[in-house]
Specification:
heterodimer, A: Gyrase A, domain 2, Cyclophilin, 4-stranded mixed beta sheet, 5 helices, 13 strands, about 25% helix, B: mainly beta, 2 domains, 7-stranded mixed beta barrel
């Protein structure tokens, strides 16, 4: 697997475009390892996203671009992130709607959601909001036609193929299937975000 | 440790240092002073380290009562500075006795003045920075009347400059632009027009982005990109075609195409450009 197409962004950033989430995870893992080993030089930010990895604040753009072009990230390395278990009460306001879209009962929808393992592909939208990949493409659901003006903290929700857990109360258009009491985001804690890119996640159904 | 009591918060005054680094992958914006050279200059004038936290005002200034004696300096947007109503220097160190009120008046030009105090604003850091991030709400909230700001210990006497070079706010905002990464989302004529046509600073600009108004930049294709990492200075073209230049509180990821990126050194002037100021994009050649 190659590192994908490398493009310069502005004066101090590089953007690598990849085929998909698995390639992003592999390259991000590879970059984190190389950064930890001091092999990247000064790089302020590594930002994975849906099909890209951004390297920002790169001191030596030419050298890092050359390194990226020879990178051969190993997919297996990306699968070794720590596992976070998210106890979830599956009573979300959109659970029935999601079950209907999947053409299964609500019980079966919960079973489907809990039997897969997820990995945080990237964060965005709000601090600590991870986009969790792992649900097969056939279970992709659209966003709500009308976003809610306020989604409670800890809401477990679906949009597209992603699962997300709202780290704070905020407006949102994702389909709510449940809620967790787990504090996913606390800027005073180390780590601030439990669901950082690369972390593996399992949801377990618990009673209210 | 001294304190400052907020007498008049002004329209929008925030605590800012040089911002957060190394947390963009968690969805945390960089934040930090929009006019970084101005904050650095204010810090130099009072003997602080360059990354000490100061106050960033917006057009209308701020007034603070010093609960102990403090040394302050005001830079950035030029504004009248007074201590207990008596004129004091802008762009130079000013001693404020205990109990006195230091006031930064409305900016006479530019947008954002910076007030640094010897010892820095000592609010607790969040994720390595004391900056207020207005996109995600991290860091201290904007100043409100009767709020109190802790001041750190005054740094040991150093050879402080009495004056530092301070550029005037722009009459015309010239932003250099390195094309990409999504230049192929636009017709070649759109890129030429962006460089040729006049834009103006929109009154809807804020710490997240400098919004511009002018001829719509036509896209060669519709839709949105899969969300991807965004850099400071990225010029996003939303569906209405009006370019938005990302400033310090910009979201870490975005889904609108980026026609080019403005070098960070050009953004200090962007922070001081008032609504209506003409904006000219100058294309940088690839090298």
């Amino acid at each position: 697997m190659t590192a994908g197409s490398v493009r310069r962004v502005g004066e101090r950033a590089l953007r690598v475009e990849l085929a998909g989430a698995a390639e992003v995870a592999a390259l991000y893992g590879w970059l984190r390892e190389h950064q930890a080993a001091g092999l990247l030089g000064e790089v302020e930010e590594l930002v994975p996203a849906a099909r890209t990895v951004l390297l920002d604040g790169v001191a030596d753009v030419g050298a890092v671009a050359a390194l990226l072009r020879t990178a051969r990230p190993d997919r297996a390395a990306a699968a070794g992130g720590e596992l976070v278990e998210v106890p979830t009460v599956y009573d979300g306001a959109d659970l029935a709607r999601v079950a209907a879209l999947w053409e299964v009962s609500e019980e079966a929808a919960v079973r489907i959601h809990t039997e897969h393992e997820y990995a945080v592909a990237f964060c965005g939208f709000a601090p600590g909001f991870g986009y969790l990949a792992g649900l097969p493409a056939r279970y992709a659901v659209p966003r709500r036609d009308t976003p809610r003006s306020s989604v409670p903290v800890g809401s477990v929700a679906l949009a597209g193929e992603y699962t997300g857990v709202y780290p704070n109360s905020s407006p949102g258009g994702w389909q709510l299937i449940g809620r967790t009491a787990l504090a996913l985001w606390d800027p005073a804690r180390e780590p601030a975000a439990l669901l950082a890119p690369g972390v593996r996640v399992r949801f377990t159904a618990v009673r209210a | 440790m001294s304190e400052l009591l907020v007498v008049r918060p002004g329209p929008l005054t925030t605590v800012q240092d040089l911002g957060r680094r190394g947390v963009a992958h968690l969805g945390v914006p960089r934040a930090g002073a929009l006019d970084q050279p101005a904050l650095r200059a204010a810090n130099r004038l009072v003997g602080n380290a360059p990354d000490a936290a100061g106050l960033e005002t917006t057009l209308g200034g701020v007034a603070l009562r010093a609960l102990g004696p403090v040394l302050v300096a005001v830079t950035g947007a030029p504004a009248p500075v007074t201590v207990d109503g008596r004129a004091a220097a802008w762009g130079a160190p000013v001693e404020v006795p205990a109990g006195s009120v230091v006031e930064v008046g409305p900016a006479t030009a530019g947008v954002r003045s910076y007030l640094s105090v010897a010892g820095g604003i000592a609010v607790p850091p969040v994720l390595g920075s004391r900056s207020a991030d207005l996109l995600s709400g991290l860091g201290p909230a904007p100043l409100t009347a009767d709020g109190r700001l802790p001041v750190g210990p005054r740094p040991p006497y150093r050879d402080r400059p009495d004056l530092v070079p301070l550029p005037a706010p722009p009459v015309e905002l010239v932003l250099r632009l390195r094309l990409g990464p999504h230049t192929d989302w636009f017709a070649p004529s759109a890129v030429d027009r962006l460089a040729r046509d006049g834009y103006r600073v929109s009154p809807t600009s804020n710490r997240i982005g400098l919004r511009t108004e002018g001829p719509a930049v036509a896209r060669a294709r519709g839709g949105e990109l899969p969300s991807e990492g965004m850099v400071l200075g990225a010029v996003q073209i939303p569906p209405d075609g009006q370019p938005v230049v990302f400033l310090a509180d910009h979201p870490t990821t975005g889904g609108y195409p980026v026609i080019g990126v403005v070098p960070a050194v050009d953004l200090a002037a962007a922070a001081q450009a008032r609504p209506g100021v003409p904006v000219r994009f100058v294309l940088l050649r690839e090298h």
